[in-house]
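Subgroup meeting minutes
Present: P.N., E.W., G.H.
Scribe: E.W.

1. P.N. recapped why we're keeping a running log of single-chain structure predictions: easier to compare across weeks, and new members can see raw inputs and outputs side by side.
2. G.H. added today's entry (261 aa).
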Amino acid sequence: MMKKSVLIFTKVPTPGLVKTRLSQTTSLSEIEASLLAEAMLKDTIILASQSKANSIEIGYYPEEDFHRLQKIVEDIQETNDLKLDINYYLQNGSSFDERFGSVVQASIESGNDLIAVIGADLPYMAPSLINSAFNSLGTISKTNSIVVGPAGEGGIYLVGVSRYYNPNWFKDYNLFTSGVEIIQFSKFCKLEEIKLHLLTPLIDIDIEDDLVSLLGFIEGLKIAESNEYFHYPYYTAKVLESLGLYIKIIEDKTRNRRIGK
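Output recorded in log:
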């Protein structure tokens, strides 16, 4: 039986460290942006636990904030009675690609066969998408295959690999730092003759427009009779409500919507 893991690649939700673009371009303060990041991390852990993964892993940064991260995770485990093991790996390296590869390497060394790496800023992602990544990887035996979930602006919200993937390829090809990510991964797969599987595109929460979309999704999910393609982000919705955020429509502007507070 293949051992499957969801690896959450994240910064510890500390004011001034996380979601800085939101605090710089909206009315959110650094503290409020960190509260939102913490809530999204909690929802990400919950949706990961609802997938077919055998364990959850968290690749975190920085090292000095580990105890804060551990407290957040332990609280969410106790409150929601989560049974899956949760392991921690410190991100090591001087670049994003090096840090990403380091935690994938740690996950492989811990014995995982299939690994779905996600961020902590897509709290409405359906667990079924993680399962789809596992299914795609599981169809290939002892050959290199990769699953990618495309995000906004050419980014990526999920990277799925098997234990036969070489984690050094992230830094060797600068997959996250030398251009538009989805294009870089496509070029890389062609060069290395790796089978590429694409998931449904989703919007991760980085900038104001993303937050506008998230507020709209949540309002729809509150009354939707069916939401099989979404996970309801309870903690994120609660924080957004407590902050009094809403979608502000700018008159005489086509689709010019901003975050009100």
